[in-house]
Automatic annotation (TrEMBL):
Pfam families: Sacchrp_dh_NADP. It comes from Asticcacaulis machinosus. Coiled coil: none annotated. SUPFAM superfamilies: NAD(P)-binding Rossmann-fold domains. InterPro entries: NAD(P)-bd_dom_sf (IPR036291), Sacchrp_dh_NADP-bd (IPR005097). This is Saccharopine dehydrogenase NADP-binding domain-containing protein.
């Protein structure tokens, strides 16, 4: 059994990944620049799971990372240190140099799609390097894999995420989204006209939750899924539960779009604190929707609508699952390397939807499926 080292392990996603792994007896190292935070989380996890093999380590990803990994050494590194928009691959390269499997939760469109540039290096060391082990494209591709065989052709995929107002929000994720609000986005297959971050509003109805406003977001899927599944048109959006916050950010997007020199990502921490003032007007319930439209084998139109609803603040567990499943497999079983395949790749079709939902079974989650 190998150790899993979690970079940013005391953060919003890292702490959830660590707890899930120790619950299945995977040794974990909580790592980051703040040793006291890492030690505090390690102690708390040992109280939750007394027999857990969990340790803390001081690691700066920008200073001596290869040596730190060789000294520990883990079998798998999970990198949760975002935002990944604009990052390079020095952490993944350090893992390759140290002979360690690498997984990240990146949602940066260029970052995840570009991880394949490390493919030859990873294969030469018989390593798995996986980017985007999160909701997108980890869960989104798992849903497509489940339903793709019901279509002769998938013409459109329209999907998105709307977290609950009271659900815990990470600073890195917020910075990532704010980095492109109001900015012109790279085209997406099948979309006509220019796309801008947090614009093109529409209203999505969720089972149990009701209506939520949605707006453009930039994710790796927009490049990866049309190529993997020959989807003709794809659109991804995200939404905030409280209309005032969602529409307020939409208004800010117009200020950026008309050219005002506003760097919203620089104010992410302040905007998160301001958002918290509205918690009393929202819930801890969020959801994700996936709508696939196309033709069946008999040539007739077919539509599949899939939803997952997370209640009581459990929504942030969903992005953690692909990294949990893949890290556990690589740590526990050397055969997993052959199953997953060596090399560098995006997390498309690597996690089965049944395994995904099993991992979430101890949380307050429910899925809905409709088909026409």
């Amino acid at each position: 059994m190998g150790k899993v080292l979690i970079l940013g392990g005391y953060g919003n996603f890292g702490k959830r990944i660590a707890e899930a792994l120790i619950r299945t007896d995977v040794p974990v190292v909580i790592a980051g620049r703040d040793l006291s935070k890492a030690q505090a989380l390690a102690a708390r996890l040992k109280n939750i799971v007394p027999h857990a093999d969990v340790a803390a380590a001081l690691i700066n990803i920008d200073d001596g990372l290869v040596e730190a990994l060789k000294n520990l050494p883990p079998k798998v590194v999970v990198n949760t240190i975002g935002p990944f928009q604009g990052q390079d691959y020095h952490v993944a390269r350090a893992c390759i140099a140290a002979g360690v499997h690498y997984i990240d939760l990146a949602d940066g469109r260029e970052f995840v799609a570009g991880i394949a540039s490390l493919d030859e290096e990873a294969k030469a060391e018989n390593l798995c390097v996986i980017s985007g082990a999160s909701t997108v494209p980890g869960l989104s591709s798992a849903v497509v894999e489940r339903y793709r065989h019901r279509f002769n052709e998938i013409e459109t995929m329209m999907y998105g995420i709307s977290p609950g107002q009271k659900a815990e929000r990470g600073l890195a994720t917020t910075k990532g989204i704010l980095s492109y609000v109001g900015k012109k986005l790279k085209p997406a297959r099948g979309q006509v006209g220019a796309r801008y971050g947090w614009q093109d509003l529409y209203r999505q109805t969720y089972p149990e939750l009701g209506g939520r406003w949605m707006a453009n977001c930039d994710v790796p899927d927009l490049d990866l899924l049309p190529e993997a599944y020959d989807i003709k048109s794809i659109r991804f959006s995200a939404g905030l539960e409280h209309p005032l916050l969602h529409l307020g950010l939409w208004s800010l997007s117009w200020l950026v779009r008309i050219g005002l020199p506003i760097k919203l990502e620089r104010h992410a921490a302040l905007m998160l604190r301001m958002s918290d003032l509205f918690n009393g007007l929202g819930t801890a319930d969020g959801g994700m929707h996936v709508v696939l439209r196309g033709t069946a084998s008999d040539g007739q139109p077919r539509e599949v609508r899939w939803f997952i609803i997370a209640r009581n603040g459990d929504g942030p567990q969903i992005p953690c699952v692909p990294a949990i499943i893949l890290a556990r497999r690589l740590a526990q079983n050397d055969r997993a390397v052959a199953d997953i395949g060596t090399g560098a790749k995006a997390c498309v079709g690597l996690v089965n939807i049944d395994d995904y939902l099993t991992e979430l079974s101890r949380f307050d989650m429910k899925t809905h499926h409709f088909e026409d």
